[in-house]
Amino acid sequence: MIAECLSIGANNHLQIGGVDTVELAKQYGTPLYVMDEDQIRKNCRIYKDAVDKYYDGNGLILYASKAFSCMQIYRIMAQEGLGIDVVSGGELYTALKAKFPMEKAYFHGNNKTNDEIELAVKHGVGRIVVDNVFELGRLDAISAKYQKKTKILFRIKPGIDAHTHSFIQTGQIDSKFGVALETGEAMDIIAQAAKLENVEVVGVHCHIGSQIFDLAPFELAAKVMTNFMADVKDKLGLSLSELNLGGGYGIKYLDSHNPVEYDAYIRSVSEVVKDTANSRGISVPKIIMEPGRSIVGPAGITLYTVGAVKEIPNVRTYVSVDGGMTDNPRYILYQSEYSALLANRAGDKPVKPVTIAGKCCESGDLLAEGVMMPEVKAGDTLAVLATGAYNYSMASNYNRIPRPPVVMVSGGKSKVAVKRETYDDLIRNDV
Ligand code: LLP
C-alpha cells in the first residue's frame, strides 16, 4: 500500500485508519473524500519533533493550507501547535472562523487585495509575506490606519528551479512570485522597507517548488537564503531573525515514488542553515517550513462508484466513475499520476490496465490511465489513493456537479468535516 493509513481487511475491503471504506461509501454516498485524521496528526508531529530535535526547537512548522482548507483542518493544526500558511482572504476567514490563533498565521500571495490586507492586519495575522513593492506601500498605509507595526518577511526568488527532473540554478527565474536576488531587487526592497514606519522586516521566505524528491535543491536554497541574510546584515546593518524555506516535499502517489524522509530533510537543512550562519557570523535564524501536500496528501483517498465500463477492443477499457475532474482536477491540469484500486475487492489480483474516466463533458476528464485492475463491474467501489492534498481544495462545480463531502476517520470512527454540496447550494448565489 502506498500510504501507511491504508490496509486490507479480512473481508477484502480497503480500510483507511482501520475503517472499512465500502461501509463509508454506503453510509455517506459517493463520490466521497475520506481523510485519516490520526495520520494527519502523526505527520504534523513528525515535522514538529524533527525541528525540536535538529534545530533545538528554534523553528515553526506551518501547514500550507492551500493543500486542504476547511474549518476542521485549522482546528487540528491549532491543537497540534502548528502555524498555518494562508494565501487568500477566504483561507484567512476560514481559519478565523475556526478560531485559529492568528499570531501563528503567515499570509502569502503575489497580489493581495487591499481588502485581504486589511482583514489580515485587523485580525493581527502573525506575519505577512510581502511579494512586491506595490504591496509593501499598501501594507504600510493599512498598518498605519490600524496603528499597527506589521511584521513582514519578503518572498525572495533564490534562483533555484526544482520543477525539473534534476534541478537547475539559474540567475533569474521567470516567476510571478517574489523579488529577485540576482538583480539586487531583493536587497533594494528590504532597504526601502527598513525605512517605513509601520512595518518591521523580520525575515525572508522562499519556496522552490512542489512534489520534490531530492534533498539537494532544498539544501542549496537554505544556503543561498542564509547567505542572503548575512548580506543584508553586511550591507544594511539589519539583522533578520526568520528564515522561511517554504514547502514542497514530495509524497508517494505511485509505488515507484521515493520521497525523502521528512525527518532527514529537516536534519540536513538545519545543518546547512547553522553552518552557513556560523561561517558568516550571523545568529542562527528561526527556521520556518511550510509543508502542505506531505501533511494531508497521503492521509486522503477518494471513493467513487463505478458506472459504465466501456471496453474498446484493441484500444482501451474506460471505467467511468461518478466524480472526476470536478473533485480531482490534477490529471487534467498536470497529468498527475495516481494509484487506484477496487475498495470492495482490494486484494484481488489486477488483471488488466484500465483508464478511469470522470463524468464531465470533457474528453480529458480522466483520473488515471493504465491502472492495473481486476475485472471491474458497475457498482464496484473504486478508490483513488493519496488524494488528501490539492483535490478538495481545487475542486470545482463544472457541469454543476456538487462537491463531495469530506469525512474524517479517527480512532476507528468517522465524522463529516465538510458536508456534501446540494443542488440548492449550487443555485444559492444565482439571481
Ligand atoms: N509555501 C508556499 C509559498 C507555496 O506556494 C506552497 C505551494 C507551499 C508552501 C506548499 O507546498 P507543498 O508542501 O504542498 O508542496 N496545485 C499543485 C500544487 C501547487 C503548490 C503551490 N504552492 C498540485 O496539485 O500539485
Explain this structure:
With 431 residues, the chain is of the alpha/beta class. Helices cover 30% and strands 26% of the residues. It contains 12 helices and 23 strands. The longest helix has 21 residues. The protein is globular, with a radius of gyration of 23 Å. The mean pLDDT is 96. Bound molecules: ligand LLP. The site of ligand LLP has 19 residues, from α10. Ligand LLP binds next to α10.
Task: Present the secondary structure layout.
Blueprint: E1 6-8, E2 14-16, E3 19-20, H1 21-28, E4 32-36, H2 37-54, E5 59-64, H3 71-80, E6 83-86, H4 89-97, E7 105-107, H5 114-122, E8 127-130, H6 133-145, E9 150-157, E10 160-161, E11 168-169, E12 179-180, H7 185-194, E13 199-205, H8 216-236, E14 242-244, H9 262-280, E15 286-289, H10 293-296, E16 300-312, E17 316-321, H11 330-334, E18 340-342, E19 352-357, E20 366-373, E21 381-385, E22 406-410, E23 413-418, H12 423-427
Parallel strand pairs: 4-22, 5-6, 5-15, 6-7, 7-8, 8-9, 9-12, 9-13, 13-14, 14-15, 17-19
Antiparallel strand pairs: 1-2, 2-3, 4-16, 10-11, 16-17, 16-21, 18-21, 19-20, 22-23
Helix pairs in contact: 2-9, 5-6, 8-9
The chain binds ligand LLP.
Ligand LLP binds next to helix 10.
